[in-house]
TrEMBL record:
The lineage of its organism: Bacteria, Bacillati, Actinomycetota, Actinomycetes, Kitasatosporales. It comes from Streptomyces violaceusniger. This is DUF397 domain-containing protein. It comes from the Bacteria. Residues 15-68 form the DUF397 domain. InterPro entries: DUF397.
Amino acid sequence: MNELADLREVDLTHAVWRTSSYTAGNGNCVEVTPIPGISGIAVRDSKNRECPAARFTEQAWAAFIAAAVDDTLTS
């Protein structure tokens, strides 16, 4: 399998999800977890945990975080 296919196949049923320490506690946030056994990150909406999580390679996630920090995200 290729890396992207592997990201989609991993079962996240027992994943340990976390939120930012800056979360206000009102449920309006995202949760993240490393994808076990693969260099990837899964992200889900804390208000709708039954929806599928978005999955990213570590490189794609790092690029997203860097762009968010640098305020260079574009639409």
